[in-house]
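*Target chain*
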Amino acid sequence: GLWQMSSILPPESPLRAAIPLVAGALVLVSANLGTSTLAADYLGTIDREGLAGLLLTPVDRRLVLLSSTSVTLLLGMAQSLVLLVAVAIFTGSWIVLPWGLYFALCLHFGTMPLYHLSSILAPYRAPLQAWGGKGGNLGVFIAWTVGTPPIVALFVLPALLWPPAQIVTLPLAAVYAFGLYALTLKPIATLMDRRTHQILEAVTEES
């Protein structure tokens, strides 16, 4: 695997220095797929009990989306910190900790617009102990598949091919992730407002 490859490469090889970063990115991408179910079905798991009263009021839908983003961000970053500490201990490279946390932050905001769309276009009621659903899992997987590659490319490819390029690509990743989130927040909130009744019907329906 990656660890065996790093032992073969000479100490001065840029690829050897990139191995812990690639390992951290792979771990975080896999973890993101696991937590994406909650992010993409926030309305059907966390908020559903008081959702009817909330969505039937004139509250700004952007606040609902920001709430979803904040809750899942806290959970995702806590999980990322634990996983990155394990990767750092295993590889002996502690640079993976700040690099990985920054990667996790950009990954979260770069993928949340698609997870929001999934929760609005394919809402479903999911118990907390068994996240998932027939239509939801497909929507989650599509959102994860489409949203993850741009962030991975901006972080991993420069680390592997030409590390100095990260001076440009790492800030660019933040511009992409936060810019995408900011630009799509209002249109997605408008779509959410238009689909209020469909969302309520789906997430308050008893299974």
Remarks:
- The chain has a mean pLDDT of 81.
- The two ends are 43 Å apart (CA to CA).
- The CA atoms of residues 110 and 179 lie 9 Å apart.
